[in-house]
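Anyone have tokens for Glutamate racemase? Sequence:
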Amino acid sequence: MKIGFFDSGIGGLTVLGHALKILPFADYTYYADIEHLPYGEKTKGEVKQYVQNGMDYMDKINVDAVVIACNTSTNVAVGKLRKKYSFPIIGMEPAVKPAVAYCKEKGKKVLVLATSLTLREEKFHQLIHRLGATDMVDTMALGRLVDFARQFEFDTSAVYQYLQREFAPLAIADYGAVVLGCTHFPLFNKALQKSFTTETVFFNGTVGTINHLADILNKKGVVPSTDDKIKFVITDGKLPPNDVDYKKILQTYLHSI
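Reply: yep, here.
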């Protein structure tokens, strides 16, 4: 069983972490396009090309399926990619639907945190409209968290100060749920949870994505491998690939879920 994961950086490690729990015994290839990070500040055309480069690589190594472990890439590129490649491509979607259902019962609002490009996409706004949740869903772009993640900085005073400034205008008690609409954001769980009340529930689409992946592989009859193997492919012309850093973050996240 050969599974590819694609992300602009290390955020997809949060998705890979759940895959290791739900789908053990697989040969994983994690493709991190660090060279072009952050995607949330790029044009749609640029993002489409970056993702296609990653899918071309996955095609060459004959994967059984690919998870685009990046909300921005999914929103911008996944539709056309599914028509181009023979292997299944599973994308990410902000977990707005369960968050809205939860908050309707509680009489609270939902706050969606994502990149600016994700929040600008028509696909996202159509989702909110279909749910009839326009008046109860607020959004906020927290693109700088991706920059912090690139520096492997998750629980520092700079992160807390940034979040404090961004959340200062909000009436925090109004929000019953926060949707983490970028796969980098669960790496900041500790800092984010301290910014809201203890009753606030956090949602992300990771588990649903991996369950969908498992269903697809099962229907295809893909045979599991004998153990877990993880290969990292890092596109960065300035720094050499550093598997040790990625493995360390992955292990830290695994211990937190």
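The first strand starts at residue 2 and ends at 7.
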